Amino acid sequence: MDFCQSDEVQAMRVEARKFTEEKIVPFADKWDEEHHFPIEVVRQMGELGFFGCCIPEEFGGTNVGHLAQAVLCEEVGRGSASLRVAFNTQCWGTAFSILRHGTEQQKKKWIPDLISAKKIGCFAITEPNAGSDTLSMKTTAKPTDDGFVLNGNKIWISYASRADVALVYAYHDREAGSRGLSAFIVDLHSPGVSTSDLDKMGTRTSPTSEICFEEVKIPKDALLGKLGDGVKILFSSLNQTRLGCASGGVGLAQACLDAAVKYCDEREQFGQKIGQFQMNQEIVAVMAADIEAARLLTYRAAWQKDQGQVGNVLETSMAKYMAAEAAQRCAHGAMKILGSYGYSTEYPVARYYRDAVLYQIVEGTVNVQKMIIAQDQLGIRKANR
Ligand SMILES: Cc1cc2nc3c(=O)[nH]c(=O)nc-3n(C[C@H](O)[C@H](O)[C@H](O)COP(=O)(O)OP(=O)(O)OC[C@H]3O[C@@H](n4cnc5c(N)ncnc54)[C@H](O)[C@@H]3O)c2cc1C
Q1: What is the tens place of the pLDDT at every residue in 25-54?
Q2: pLDDT tens-place string over residues 360-379
Q3: Last residue of some domain: 120, 147, 164?
Q4: Is 371 found in the same domain as 237?
Q5: DSSP secondary structure string, 123-137?
Q6: Whose CA is nearest to atom 50 of ligand 1?
Q7: Which one of 28, 59, 71, 223 counts the least CB within 10 Å of its CB?
């Protein structure tokens, strides 16, 4: 089945590819070297409607669907794994959660500015001692007469130091277990919020930060959904941001294949093009098949969401798992084909290699995806409930 038959999606892919080739690819290595976050590029993507595909027109979106947004994310991810993160910070992890769980007032206040990237967003789940075990987080939002007071530390939060708003998960009642977790839309310019950037081996164009909340007063209307809806919102949001990762992973894997194929046709050894050697052909064949498998799973998961199955945890986890593996294997394959030139910073393959690792970690590690899939298959815990 060709999930992307519609003329609309095809046209959007062409537009995103042109944008990526003109505005991202020529600068991506330099930005990476300088750890520079090109915020103006994120704003341009917002203005072009890249982040509003699964948002109704009344809130500034185009309502063309998750599949269209996955295709755009894949194309941007082909140029920069750091900039594809914006699809999650501006939509799947923020605006889309507000669309599903927010009041009319919250939707009007936040969604148009997030998807147009007038405001930069982020979502803050992870803490120093709460990674895969998200619910062991310690951040609290103590109820007061006029709202809540937020205290705690989040870590590894993408775009946080440049963000205006965060979707923050915190316990309003620690004694109530998982029913005590809630989600809050927090203005990051509030007194008591501070951020500091973390250094990392890859995706260096995407700032990743620690956020400290110290006696941060937030109003009652910062609460997303009802008190105690935190677990529901968190896991349904992860099930959308995983689609962003899957799409980005496919894009990065494709960039690796493109680089490998080009080099196979340029480089000669032993009097022939290196693409003539069967051992290199084997690498190219496995890369191409890996990408196609990951792409089909990703498009299926996106397409299901467009059919109303937004809670398709099993299929989204499969897509995220396969795309993470494809990205890593393709980066390794491209590195082998380019030899020392792959290892050099002259070619983008070294960046792809460093960036690919991240898809193994974010939005639930590869182990976590496998755990979800295995528990479903073994009947221990149904993934789609
Ligand atoms: C660059 C970057 C950007 C990020 N952006 C964000 C963001 O925007 N927002 C946000 O909230 N978080 C973000 N994260 C955090 C990311 O989602 C977590 O790092 C991830 O969920 C894993 O947590 P951890 O690193 O603490 O690993 P841990 O949970 O400590 O896991 C360590 C290892 O143990 C394995 N493991 C853990 N539990 C199990 C289990 N039950 N079964 C089998 N294996 C297990 C893991 O797979 C992993 O291999 C980001 C991280 C990075 C590096």
Answers
A1: 999 999 999 999 999 999 999 999 999 999
A2: 999 999 999 999 999 999 99
A3: 120
A4: yes
A5: EE--BTTBSSSGGG-
A6: 156
A7: 59
